[in-house]
Amino acid sequence: MSRRRLIAAGLHVAAGLFVAGTVGTLWVCAAMLAPMFEGSFVPGLVAMFGRPVAIVLIGFGVLEVAAAIALLRGSPWARMVLLTVSAVLLFVFPVGTALSIYTGWALTSSFRTEVA
């Protein structure tokens, strides 16, 4: 496995853990603070919008970590999943964009040299 793939996988593990951990922590904090706002619209708003968004973001982070670990283990599906995750991360400027560009370069350039 090339060094570029190792670096890309490591960066995706770190990014996925950061996203899942940060969103999970914010979700728990919002749930603990909700009783302070009883009688207002805030708990309902958090439950209505916060819960689905948190579940999607935590799932995305877990998928990213799983695909990065699978790439390190040599699974053939992991490359395509990480490229798909990177396409979504292009819109998370500036860190997600830089990570996406590096991942695209690392995974597609090593694929070209393996095929040739």
Average pLDDT confidence is 89
Report strand %. Answer: under 5%
List the domain count as a whole number: 1
Q: Main β-sheet: number of strands, strand sense, barrel status?
A: none
The number of strands is 0
- SSE string, helices as H and strands as E: HHHH
Q: Describe the global form.
A: elongated
List the uncertain runs: none
What Rg do the Cα atoms give? 18 Å
User: Which secondary-structure class do the elements indicate?
Assistant: mainly alpha
Helix content: over 70%
**Tally of contiguous helical segments:** 4
**Euclidean distance between termini CA atoms:** 16 Å
Quick rundown:
The protein is an all-alpha fold and 116 residues long. It contains 4 helices and no strands.
How would you characterize this protein structure?
- The chain is mainly α and 116 residues long.
- The protein has one domain (3-115).
- The protein has four helices and no strands.
- The chain has helices spanning 3-33, 42-73, 78-89, 95-115.
- Helix 1 runs antiparallel to helix 2.
